[in-house]
Amino acid sequence: MIEVRKVSKTFGAFTALEDVSFRVEAGEVYGLLGENGAGKTTMMRMMATILKPTEGEIEVAGYSVRIEPDEVRRRIGILFGGDVGLYSRLTARENIAYFGSMYGMEKQAIGERIERLSQMFEMGAFLDRRVGPFSRGMKQKVAIARTLVHDPDVILLDEPTTGLDVTAANIFRRVIGRLQEEGKTILFSSHNMGEIDKLCKRIALIHKGRLQFAGALEQLRAQYGKEDLDELFMTVVEGSGR
């Protein structure tokens, strides 16, 4: 469902990613693991057609990000880390509805989808309040709901639990499980090893723009003889020589 083949991305003399390849299967929750600055967000921006690969190819749901970007955009939902990008004067419902309309959804379908997402993320208490005064966690819930409003087949989540408290993070994990049951393909980017361990069976580990490992977590643990993912990460990174 997501195919990354020998992808590199440069910005002038700076190489953000170099010769990265991995594959995410349909219906899989796949972890993109690396420290801040490793190149995770750059990779997701290329998948979302915001950036173009300097070299290599990315296909999402069978469509090339270079040749068929419109087809890719129709099939993805994307949440980037950092600023959630909500309109502070609009209510949570209005923010989600606005993005639904951008995807060409009918008003009734948007309303029905919002009600379902509100239940999934337990947003009923603040759904019709303006988002300006919301806490970071409340805003993050709205942003994730906005990402899912058009029911995309492929979901790209860049550090999605940023700002979420323990309760909200647990709700998010349950939602991810439900989406996987629905057959959604989910790429989950994080530097939080615990989140990756809870949600993903397979990962791609990137360090300073280079792919260090791609495959099953069980395989990685067997290869290095360690169970703790933090220790595994440090072992792989220290052995990379970069």
Tell me the Rg in angstroms: 18 Å
Order of helices and strands: EEEHEEHEHHHEHEHEEHH
Overall pLDDT: 92
Number of structurally distinct domains: 1
Q: Based on CA inertia axes, which overall geometry fits?
A: globular
Query: Order of strands across the biggest sheet?
Result: 6-7-8-3-9-10
Give the termini separation.
Answer: 31 Å
Roughly what percent helix? 25-40%
Tally of helical runs: 9
Which structural class fits the helix and strand makeup?
A: alpha/beta
The number of distinct β-strands equals 10
- Biggest sheet architecture: 6 strands, mixed
**CATH topology-level name:** Rossmann fold
Query: Which CATH architecture?
Result: 3-Layer(aba) Sandwich
Model regions low in confidence, pLDDT < 50 over at least 5 residues:
none
CATH homologous superfamily identity: P-loop containing nucleotide triphosphate hydrolases
DSSP strand (E) fraction? Answer: 25-35%
CATH class: Alpha Beta
Report on this model:
With 242 residues, the protein is an alpha/beta fold. It has a single domain (2-85, 148-238), classed as P-loop containing nucleotide triphosphate hydrolases (Rossmann fold), CATH 3.40.50.300. The protein contains 9 helices and 10 strands. The chain has helices at residues 40-47, 69-75, 92-102, 107-121, 136-148, 166-181, 193-199, 217-224, 229-238; strands at 2-11, 14-24, 29-33, 55-60, 63-64, 76-79, 154-158, 185-190, 202-207, 210-216. The strands form 2 sheets. A 6-stranded mixed sheet has the order 6-7-8-3-9-10, sandwiched between helices. Strand 4 and strand 5 form a beta hairpin. The longest helix is centred in the C-terminal third of the chain and has 16 residues, at 166-181.
